[in-house]
């Protein structure tokens, strides 16, 4: 029987999801297995790496049960970026895995986050990359690093369990901040700073490389055919970019998730504070990304803590967000003078200011819940315009297409606001699971279901709807954008003074 299907697996911060894809990008089966997030102290974020494996294997097994598993040619894993686990010589975890959202290494960023580190890694100094957390371990848990056999990103951990090989992709390892993006090799100086060497790391391969077949016992446990190929993947952001059909310049993806990530593809390596640079899922290219910590997280915060909207009490089978969105859509651009600075989790690109905080400005007695909700949608859109224009300022050509995915993409109101604010078309992906789809594209190209990755990206992706800017709304937002650009510079000294009092320490966690 022809092996004409592939599996894309996304191991995120909350769950592992496996999707079986046909060669045209049609999802045939899927399964999701959640796992826990531990926050033992404010600002910390950890997980049991064994839970990654249990969830991954469970999701693949369940997804494969409803198709003819003999047709599955290959499997690729995408994953939460920057997260890593310290393992002993036998591949067993020495401590809980440290996650991308773990912010404990602030002192290490202040001390070691130099311009040289930025140049080498493409990552402006901030607590997200794993290197700073490894420096924290070297200071606070030296006994852990003394016993380390391997330090691996989530992809490397999964690949070893699947194949028995210590290999990971450049696009999976580089978010750790240990790889020289100009050479695609680990940087010896960065490794030695935290007491490691290349012998402690997984070997690097390009995304889309056939790593090897599944171990026979693993294939049997997953319900897959022996000999099923494991293909190297990429971090979730790069995989999402590929899953939207973007493999070259001129277009950008916009992932409207808990955080907001947007990015475009470049053939040349560059670095700047306006973006962070990573290896793209397309081999030989780079992904230039902007990052906003507060996306749908901000909306959920308002709904849960302040809106007091209970659809069930009204006898409605809809979400509170849908009710607020409908009310917000009746308001004019600008929410009648209300503006939001969406730094609920600090400011990332281009300010990289962990003291920054969210702000709601312009409150008067006429404002209600719908005004605040619309101002939140608009504030995130205005911030994204600022980030996109900053990225465009260093690109050889403008971004003329914005392809939207993530939970927020379901909101037509929000997508239209984004189109009006950014003054460019917004296209919404056909497939909501674009991150898993990107992993599936890598598997499909490597397994020969398509001639190459570019063909796989075109054939397996698609658009469901398109939003065009409304001239009158775009003009209103132009005026508001001029005001918005003044807010952070005016408040930055206030944020710093507030942080100095110690009052924001707990909320920053």
Structural commentary:
It is a single chain. The chain has helices at residues 49-65, 106-112, 115-121, 130-140, 142-146, 154-163, 170-173, 188-193, 216-222, 236-243, 296-307, 320-329, 369-392, 412-422, 434-446, 453-460, 471-500; strands at 5-11, 15-22, 27-34, 46-47, 72-79, 84-87, 97-98, 150-153, 167-169, 179-180, 185-186, 203-205, 210-213, 229-231, 251-256, 260-266, 276-279, 286-292, 339-341, 359-361, 401-405, 426-429, 463-467. The protein is an alpha+beta fold. It has 3 domains: 5-233, 2-Layer Sandwich (Nucleotidyltransferase, domain 5); 240-294 and 400-406 and 425-467, ATPase, nucleotide binding domain (Nucleotidyltransferase, domain 5); 296-389 and 471-500, ATPase, nucleotide binding domain (Nucleotidyltransferase, domain 5, 2-Layer Sandwich), CATH 3.30.420. The longest helix is centred in the C-terminal third of the chain and has 30 residues, at 471-500. The chain is globular, with a radius of gyration of 22 Å.
Features:
Nucleotidyltransferase, domain 5; 509 residues; 7-stranded mixed sheet; alpha+beta; globular; 6-stranded mixed sheet
Short description:
The chain has helices at 49-65, 106-112, 115-121, 130-140, 142-146, 154-163, 170-173, 188-193, 216-222, 236-243, 296-307, 320-329, 369-392, 412-422, 434-446, 453-460, 471-500, and strands at residues 5-11, 15-22, 27-34, 46-47, 72-79, 84-87, 97-98, 150-153, 167-169, 179-180, 185-186, 203-205, 210-213, 229-231, 251-256, 260-266, 276-279, 286-292, 339-341, 359-361, 401-405, 426-429, 463-467. With 509 residues, the protein is α+β, with helices and mostly antiparallel strands. The chain has a 7-stranded mixed β-sheet. The chain has a 6-stranded mixed β-sheet with strand order 3-2-1-5-14-13.
């Amino acid at each position: 029987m022809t092996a004409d299907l592939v599996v894309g697996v996304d191991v995120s911060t909350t769950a592992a999801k496996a999707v079986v894809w046909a060669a045209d990008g049609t999802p045939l089966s899927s399964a999701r297995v959640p796992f826990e997030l531990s926050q033992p102290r404010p600002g910390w974020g950890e997980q049991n790496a064994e839970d990654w494996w249990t969830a991954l294997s469970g999701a693949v097994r369940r997804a494969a049960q409803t198709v003819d598993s003999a047709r599955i040619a290959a499997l690729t894993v995408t994953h939460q970026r920057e997260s890593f686990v310290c393992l002993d010589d036998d591949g067993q975890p020495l401590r809980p895995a440290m996650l991308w959202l773990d912010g404990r290494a602030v002192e290490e960023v202040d001390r070691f986050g130099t311009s040289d580190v930025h140049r080498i890694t493409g990552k402006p100094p901030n607590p997200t990359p794993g290197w700073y957390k490894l420096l924290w371990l070297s200071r606070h848990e030296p006994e852990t690093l003394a016993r380390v056999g391997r330090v691996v990103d989530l992809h490397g951990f999964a690949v070893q369990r699947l194949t028995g090989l210590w290999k990971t992709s450049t696009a999976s390892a580089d978010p750790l901040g240990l790889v020289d993006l100009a050479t695609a090799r680990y940087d010896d100086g960065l490794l030695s700073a935290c007491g490691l060497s290349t012998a402690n790391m997984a070997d690097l391969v390009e995304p889309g490389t056939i790593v090897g077949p599944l171990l026979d016992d693993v294939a049997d446990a997953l319900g897959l055919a022996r000999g099923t190929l494991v293909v190297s993947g990429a971090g979730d952001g790069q995989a999402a970019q590929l899953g939207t059909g973007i493999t070259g310049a001129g277009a950008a993806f916009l992932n409207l998730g808990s955080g907001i990530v947007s990015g475009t593809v470049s053939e040349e390596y560059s670095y700047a504070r306006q973006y962070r640079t990573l290896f793209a899922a397309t081999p030989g290219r780079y992904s230039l990304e902007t990052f906003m910590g507060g996306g749908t997280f901000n909306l959920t915060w308002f709904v849960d803590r302040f809106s007091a909207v209970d659809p069930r009490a009204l006898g409605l089978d809809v979400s509170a967000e849908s009710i607020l969105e409908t009310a917000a859509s009746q308001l004019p651009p600008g929410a009648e003078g209300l503006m939001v600075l969406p730094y609920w989790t600090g400011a990332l690109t281009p300010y990289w200011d962990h003291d920054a905080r969210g702000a709601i400005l312009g409150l008067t007695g006429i404002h209600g819940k719908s005004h605040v909700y619309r101002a939140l949608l608009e504030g995130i859109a205005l911030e994204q315009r600022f980030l996109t224009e900053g990225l465009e300022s260093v690109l050889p050509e403008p971004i003329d297409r914005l392809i939207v995915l993530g939970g927020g993409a379901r909101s037509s109101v929000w997508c239209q606001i984004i189109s009006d604010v950014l003054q460019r078309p917004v296209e919404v992906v056909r497939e909501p699971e674009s991150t898993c789809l990107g992993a599936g594209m890598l598997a499909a190209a490597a397994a020969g279901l398509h001639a190459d990755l570019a063909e796989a990206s075109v054939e397996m992706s698609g658009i469901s709807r398109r939003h065009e800017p409304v001239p009158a709304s775009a003009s209103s937002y132009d005026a508001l954008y001029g005001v918005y650009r003044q807010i952070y510079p005016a408040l930055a000294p206030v944020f710093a003074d507030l942080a100095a009092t110690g009052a924001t320490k707990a909320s920053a966690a």
